[in-house]
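Reading a protein record of the kind used here takes little practice once its layout is understood. An example of such a record is reproduced below.
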Amino acid sequence: MIERFIDIQVEKETPDEVLKLLREVHPMAELLYVDHGWWWVGIVKPEAPAREIARNTLERMRDSDTGVIEERKYAKSIVRRWRLQEQGFALCGKYRFGDEGADFDAILKDFTFADWVYRNWGAENEKIRLQIADSGVIDDDVRLRARAATVERLKADERYLFSRLIRQNPRPVTVGANLT
């Protein structure tokens, strides 16, 4: 049994082999079944400033007399999101599957791609930004590298979008945020 970073009740457990593969991509990855066919993949950030914001929000939601959050006052999904954020969960992607079950391969592929994009594009942009800041000017080498990085991004976007278009059973997906 793989250790979970999030302590929240779920109807369905993430298979250990899927979680293991996600953690090979990012060591703090987590995959949760939310409800009604929705799976959320994200990164757990123990030191995230958003944890304090979530903690304060949940505290304001509590009844002053009982100290309990009244479910009828707040939507279950809203309370769940704040509780996840309080534990450091940063949402990277949402997936909805029907009765046929979850396509964990698609989740893993999307998560791997989003992680690669973040690590590669973010690092290249940071190098260019630092070089510009150090020199105060943009020389031809920096300009060419920035242009090449942009072309590579467009090619990767095209490949990714094409792979999404040819898949069977399209579903709503949000991928790529909060990977740090």
The helical segments are 16-25, 50-61, 76-86, 104-135, 140-165.
